[in-house]
């Protein structure tokens, strides 16, 4: 079973989708910590309600954020880090220490409407401004390029006439993000377990 850390910055609806999937036995992993980069966000209430350990490590005015995060992840023996609406950019130090062990959910079909400055409602506003008829969500590995890592899963969602950034965000969450994020985590947990079992068998552990 993989130890999972979920990093959040806001409402935590993607965190909720992960909690629900884990509680339903769909993920062969356990959420061992929820980390927020700001205090008072609703995502932390979700962690509390489900008895999941949580902490706040602020990024604002905190030059030691990355060191504190790394220490926290190591203390909790974290195998997989999930950025679920986490709006700070991680340093190379953290990304390199957890290479191919950090994933992110982004509310568009990458490579559209992604990279620096594209987060939350801004992504949906940009999609509406461009006039695309299809958007969606992407789960990808995190590397040193913002939203540039290997894609794991994507799901398309139709834009409807009269959509606002808010209505589009809601539909993309309901029809894509809350589905593909738990699926990607389940897939990774399953693959890592198979890899581990194979290594053990090969080495007769
Ligand atoms: C989600 O739509 C997520 O994809 C987006 O922020 C929202 C957080 O909602 N993330 C980004 O834009 C990252 N670039 P949540 O807190 O309810 O999960």
Kindly describe this structure.
The protein is an alpha/beta fold and 205 residues long. The protein has one domain: Formyl transferase, N-terminal domain (Rossmann fold). It is built from 6 helices and 7 strands, in the order βαβαβαβαβαββα. Strands 3-2-1-4-5-6-7 form a 7-stranded mixed sheet, covered by helices on one side. Helix 1 links the parallel strand 1 and strand 2. The longest helix is centred in the C-terminal third of the chain and has 38 residues. The radius of gyration is 17 Å and the shape is globular. The two termini are 17 Å apart. The site of glycinamide ribonucleotide has 17 residues, from helix 1, strand 5 and helix 6.
Topology record:
Layout lengths: L1 E7 L4 H11 L5 E8 L5 H8 L4 E3 L8 H11 L4 E4 L8 H6 L4 E5 L14 H10 L3 E8 L9 E8 L6 H38 L3
Parallel strand pairs: 1-2, 1-4, 2-3, 4-5
Antiparallel strand pairs: 5-6, 6-7
This protein binds glycinamide ribonucleotide (GAR).
The site of glycinamide ribonucleotide has 17 residues, from helix 1, strand 5 and helix 6.
The CATH class label is Alpha Beta
Q: Could you give the order of strands across the largest sheet?
A: 3-2-1-4-5-6-7
Q: How many β-strand stretches?
A: 7
Shape label: globular
Secondary-structure element series? EHEHEHEHEHEEH
Q: Span between N and C termini? A: 17 Å
> Could you say what the CATH topology is called?
Rossmann fold
How much is the average pLDDT? 95
Ligands bound here? glycinamide ribonucleotide
Contiguous helical run count: 6
Helix content: 40-55%
Q: What would the keywords be for this entry?
A:
205 residues, seven-stranded mixed beta sheet, binds glycinamide ribonucleotide, single chain, alpha/beta, Rossmann fold, 21% strand
